[in-house]
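Recall from the previous chapter that SMILES is a line notation for molecules. Here it describes nicotinamide-adenine-dinucleotide.
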Amino acid sequence: MSDHQAFTLENLKALTNQLNDYSYAYHVKDEPLVPDAEYDRCYRELQKIEVKHPEWIQPDSPTQRVGEKPDNGFSSVLHTVPMLSLDNAFDNDSMVDFDERIQKLSGKASITYCCEPKLDGLAISLRYEDGHLVRGLTRGDGLTGEDITSNIKTIYSVPLKLRTETPPPVLEVRGEIYMPKAGFEKLNQIAAEKGEKAFVNPRNAAAGSLRQLDPKVTAARPLVLCAYSIGYAEGWSQPDSHYDGLLQLSEWGFKVNDLMSRVEGVQGCLDYFAQLSEQRDGLSYDIDGIVYKVDSIAQQKQLGFVARAPRWAIARKFPAQEEVTQILGVDFQVGRTGAITPVARLQPTFVGGVTVSNATLHNQDEMDRLGVKVNDWVVIRRAGDVIPQVVQVIEERRPDDAQEIQFPTQCPVCESDIERVEGEAVQRCTGGLVCGAQLKERLKHFVSRKAMDIDGLGDKLIEQLVEAKLVATPVDIYLLKDKPARLLAMERMGDKSVEKLLDAIEASKQTLFNRFVYSLGIREVGEATARTVTQYFGTLEKLMTATEEDLIEVEDVGPIVAQHIRMFFDQEDNVATVQGLLEQGITWQSEDADEVGEQPLEGKTYVVTGTLTRYSRDQVKDMLIKLGAKVSGSVSGKTDCLVAGEKAGSKLTKAQSLEVPVMDEEALHEMLITLGAV
Ligand SMILES: NC(=O)c1ccc[n+]([C@@H]2O[C@H](COP(=O)([O-])OP(=O)(O)OC[C@H]3O[C@@H](n4cnc5c(N)ncnc54)[C@H](O)[C@@H]3O)[C@@H](O)[C@H]2O)c1
Ligand SMILES: [Zn+2]
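With both inputs in hand, we obtain:
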């Protein structure tokens, strides 16, 4: 905005009112109107005007106060010590400014900071008298909070009694109540199945769950408390270090964040930021930044507070995972199994660290639930490498030219009818392999790295081969060797590349049973399921003749997967394709018990993570499986060993915290040699 336009009293008042409306919806109704990024932008704009014209600052300006006065069914209670907010930093420079300010004010040349992940939930204060929990309050407007004791008591990680014989007579502990990602996803899935409104994000879900009038509802929600400070104590003098205070809380039975760390000076803070930015996506809970606190309590006291926040702490924010943008149109994509997915074309927006121009709308039910139209302004969310999603329509901003979205009745690629099976949310093209889109997707899957792994047969070439009618089934790929001239005629194909491609096709004939089954593209049979069923049945014949009952016996195979596998092998076309492939000479080592070698790793569960140099991750998985191990995708208490390559991230951290043995690449290599696998 240009200065003379924006720096007016009217603009300041408008921004103040706008922010207060947002804040009320966010803090009291638990139904944010806009994403945090939008709120923060308006907030910073207001701050800019207020700095220039302090005489205009409104008494109800969000820069002068914390949160909102609660207005629902809970009773209000005055906090012993006000619960304030935190100042924000959005870049390294602001961190350097912060550190310089602290050095100046405290007269110290180097400051020790405690760094903690900024959990994205909501703040509460717990009061213990003689070691017993007597009250739990929300932050509210900072001065008074809502008494939510009965709800708090339903959360397992809230100690009802401190684990000590000699508790302080009075202790007030502050912490964040949050909902881990997995719990959030499950909750939303259940809501979707019941046709109920889903929560936009885990923070929202936590806030909505905690402020339920019926504690039974709260009890059913997966909430966790993590303590992050001592708010007040009587008859006990707390340690002079904030960090040591947290360790004390941990001993008394509180969960404290295991990634917190004490560092020296601003460089320590910046390093911590870089490290946590890497780990963010792999954490099991949402964090929206890092909180840096001056570690010495004496220094904290000396520094004191400004209007709404302590001077001795700052929250460094991560790039936003939610943003506002406009839907320009909707495309309908056809997948490998014919599923039609509506994909919103968006005004490109920077979110979750990348520019996003498409977001999935999943299916008709999801579009109905969102009530979304073309030209709507929406909130999109991209967390980690998850596909960007539209999570909310901003109805207040619906333009006059908003248009209903029509789900097609005919496949956009082959014009076959689209059908919706009873009880399923997806709609599918009925064209089967007549449908060029399905055929192309199916072939791309067949040759992909984790399937038959045919190098040089990229998406573009497959599209050309299908369009030239050279390839119509996976078997045709193995017949290409008889048609080198036709291959040469394809775009960007020379003698060399044709030769390389044919070699790669030839080499792919030596494969693994699990890869082969995965490559068939049976619905619901991913890489992991392909591994378990092939390990269980041992031979193709046994798998192809297994009944649904037989299939359900396999670990991790439910009735739906069993049905899809059975249905697949009941189709004559599919059986013919499988036979055709075997006739082309596709083979794998027999997994029959009496033919395989020793299985020294039988019963052991391995997880592989990080970058390996000597082998690919897939090679390692295959070798471990041959040795009898089970290879899983995530670390848990059941994991026997984590193979960690370079740059291993959250899986390594998790393994360490669960005391799961960790093996580096060298140790793995030695083991594989010893066991005769290489
Ligand atoms: N989307 C909206 O409409 C809307 C409206 C109002 C506020 N907001 C968002 O709320 C935030 C501002 O609100 P705020 O005043 O709660 O400030 P804040 O969330 O930026 O910081 C203070 C809070 O951080 C939390 N926290 C997490 N980990 C902590 C730790 N280790 N130590 C101390 N505190 C920790 C506590 O809950 C504390 O109350 C901004 O992110 C803003 O975008 C959004
Ligand atoms: Zn089609």
